[in-house]
Amino acid sequence: MFPRAFVLLLLVAFNAGSPLGRDDERFHEELVVRPLSGDHVNTYFQFTTRWHYGEKDNLYHTQLTPRVIAELLQQFAVKELHIGLTQGLWRYETWGYPIVEATSGAEMWAWFSGFNLTNDEVDRQWKELANVFSGVLCASLNFVDNTNSIAPRHLIRPQFMPANGRKFVRYSTLPREIVCTENLTPWKKLLPCGSASGFASLLNSGHVHNTKYHSLGLKVRVLCEDHDEDNCIVELTQTANLVYDLRLFELSNNDFSLRRLFGMGLNGFCELAQSSKIYVQRNEQGERFQLVPAPMHEVKSTRGGHTVVYSVYDMHEQFKDAGERLFNVAWLSPKSENRRRNLAKPVMPPVTVHRYLLGHGQERGRIVTEVTNSHYDALPIMVQEVIPWYVHAYLHTLSIRRKPHRLNEYGRQRLPFKLLHYTPGKQRELPSHLEIGFMLPGQTSALITIDVDYLLLKWLEYPPDANHGHYIGAAIVSSQLPMGRNYTALPAEGHLFEHSFNATRPSYVLSLHTEALIVSLPTPDFSMPYNVICLACTVVALAFGPIHSVATKMIIVGRQTSAPKNFVKKIFCKIFRRGKAAEGAGETEGAPTSGATEFASTRAAARPAGGPSGDQPLLEDLDEEEEEQD
Amino acid sequence: MFIKFVVILVLLLGSCRADAEAEDTSVLPEGFVDASQRSTHTNNWAVLVDASRFWFNYRHVANVLSIYRSVKRLGIPDSQIILMIADDMACNARNPRPGQVYNNANQHINVYGDDVEVDYRGYEVTVENFVRLLTGRTQNGTARSKKLLSDAGSNVLIYLTGHGGDGFLKFQDSEEITSQELADGIQQMWEKKRYNELFFMVDTCQAASLYEKFTSPNVLAVASSLVGEDSLSHHVDPSIGVYMIDRYTYYALEFLEKVQPFSKRTIGEFLQVCPKRVCISTVGVRKDLYRRDPHKVPITDFFGAIRPTRVSTDRINVTLANEDDFIQVDKDELVARKPFKIVMESQFPSDLFK
């Protein structure tokens, strides 16, 4: 224990002494601030470490890249890994498209490639990989296994793959996962500067978790020279995407600043970073704000016929001679803002998606995915559904119906499938996996429906909060846009946000996530066995007591005497009779038991005579009977 | 005799690197130095468990986070704390203060803090996982941070909170661990040399029933209530509508907040932290398995961590290899790598739509 601690401490010191900023390893930090419609502000942090490590042996000497990532590449045949931890729902209609896509809860997918790699081996590695990151990110990713993972066929594609070797992919979501400080803390620890300096110092839990939407992302990819595994680059991209609702700040006007959003100003840049820049979007919703201090540069980016203007603050220049001051940017809105606050309507993005459940009861239902194309031209659409094993889907009920925008209801008109891939699920083993491709005409919505049955689970398969419901993960909808309006994602070959500037391409691949669904499976009343035991015991006790006493006790028939009317005489009479009854009991005890039937019959005869007045005890030892019930 | 021998051995072994340490301890009073020298542990671990789910059990999460905060403040690193929390309170939709959990309606201490690592959370908090964790029989592929990697020199603190009864503690309202299972788990830990001394703390109703079956040596146990008694919560916060924290842990935290890493406070004082007039329940203590006098054991033996450090301004070669080799390697690495062109794959199967 001791020596290890020593070595660690000293290695850090040793490294700090050696010349930093090796030419083959670079770290960049970027912050993008985009005012959105409806008084929302999107802040997007991206931390990129790119290491041209060459051959695999060099992975033992890490500097900026975290050790766990380097070890990952030694241990597993993983070439690309994406993990997202998200809370909240991205509103495409009003906010446009995010820079990085994510679904609520945890999402993870990875590409594996290597020689002699088999399917079973990939399954094993995939499960171990999930376990590693469940420890690294403090998330329950260890619940990822074959029962909730699929191997996507068409929709999820590798960004880069070496030409040789077989390729495998695994994808899984855990929609129930909660994202909180315990995920943010280890996520920040993967950064070269930690949360001590640089943009990561802005990510304080109190100001991250009061957002409407927050998403942590981690992406690792390995890029190698063709046919050469000895000349490789590993890229680690950590992203944090937040959406603040300015109305929650209870401001009199619409002004905001970095300090207001994050609780503090920026204390400088990470000394290990090659570049450290803030980009502020100035057109669309950002147009109405005046920036203080004035930005240093302005960048105009034209992408797919759509122009975006960004103001740039370079932290390296800002803190060149400023001393210890905290850096803050304020967005000031004009005084007449309140009047025209709602005038700037958001631009409807070309494709939007929704998903919901139909049907009632806990037996069967229908999953509906709605894709809307508001572009004038037809768009290719692909949908990937993962239906968990506790929901049975019926493929023959799958249909795509269309609705032009001018109509109010879906008609019977169906859209033809261009692609249909279905892997049936298996109870307790595999989820159902469905991929659909179709052309969606312009100004039209498509309604994809499939009927499902809900399964009755086994006793121990219910989670502790069974009545909360069970989740069906989000569907992914992918499309290819001909124009770049609203599109902000990084191009596949780029690794910095600035690589999306002027990145005009023939088409832009869009990937959207729908809402996750929650179904209430038939859930038994878990307190039922307890209730049944209580009830059964009561019934048994109630029945057993009288039967037992009837079967074992003797009945003494007393003499019928007329009760005296005088109160004093009544008491006297009672005392006198009690003495007699005791004598009688002594007598019967001495007598041989002459059969229960006889006594029973005498009892039956005696009861009406005794009457409800009960002036004479017909049965003795009433106490004994009560004890049985306990 | 044996203990003396061990102490001498430890001193001998440690003398080569304990110069700075000796200076520090010299300022401490005599009695304390004696006690700490008699302590035979080399490292500290903590297993902190909140076994109950649902928002109305906010107080149990606050309980466990109070202890987490204290042990972390007193020096046990996150890598040696196993924190199990069955539900998320900090980011719960019902929490009006997202990312924060308080021990007090006046919001004195944010026990959740800004730097927290939860190792087992939500559905992972099960009796099976807890017993596997204690006995070291975790499943293949379990992450390192989810394992109790303690050894024969470890002082282990186990803290449990939740809803309990006579002889059991409920996990997530769906299963329970019995006192016998707990005692067996600890016995197995002892047999496998997984602890040196163990401090068992439990805050639940009828808590004393949980340590009754213990037979393993070097175990000191404290419980918030005796058998037949309920442990009570401290106070309610009307702004969130639930009880904030349990009485016993509230006073334990109050005590621990005053403890500093080199404090002279002892475990004996800690055991008297909640007298009956404030706790309402009677705090139960079991000392018969523990050989040392709790009044001579510093509280940092269980709530703090030994981390011998030495500040050096010189360059020290710790790998015992020839240093020049490494300088050579560094130079080699500076050779610029050959840049290459990366060809990206298409991100959309356009050919399917032709």
UniProtKB/TrEMBL annotation, chain A:
Keywords linked to the UniProt accession: Signal
A Pfam family hit: Gpi16
Record GO biological process: attachment of GPI anchor to protein
Signal peptide: 1-17
GO cellular component terms attached to this protein's record: GPI-anchor transamidase complex
Top-level taxon in the UniProt lineage: Eukaryota
Listed Low complexity bias regions: 583-610
Location of the region described as Disordered in the Swiss-Prot/TrEMBL record: 583-630
Alphabetical list of PANTHER family matching this protein: GPI TRANSAMIDASE COMPONENT PIG-T (PTHR12959:SF11), GPI TRANSAMIDASE COMPONENT PIG-T-RELATED (PTHR12959)
Name of protein: GPI transamidase component PIG-T
Taxonomic source organism: Drosophila suzukii
Gene name of the encoded protein: PIG-T
TrEMBL record, chain B:
UniProt-recorded Gene Ontology molecular function terms: GPI-anchor transamidase activity
Catalytic residues (positions): 163, 205
UniProt pathway: Glycolipid biosynthesis; glycosylphosphatidylinositol-anchor biosynthesis
UniProt-listed GO biological process terms: attachment of GPI anchor to protein; GPI anchor biosynthetic process; proteolysis
Leader sequence residues: 1-18
A UniProt-annotated Pfam family: Peptidase_C13
GO cellular component, one term: GPI-anchor transamidase complex
Keywords tagged on the record: GPI-anchor biosynthesis, Signal
Annotated PANTHER family: GPI-ANCHOR TRANSAMIDASE (PTHR48067)
Family statement: Belongs to the peptidase C13 family.
This protein's name: GPI-anchor transamidase
Gene name in the database record: PIG-K
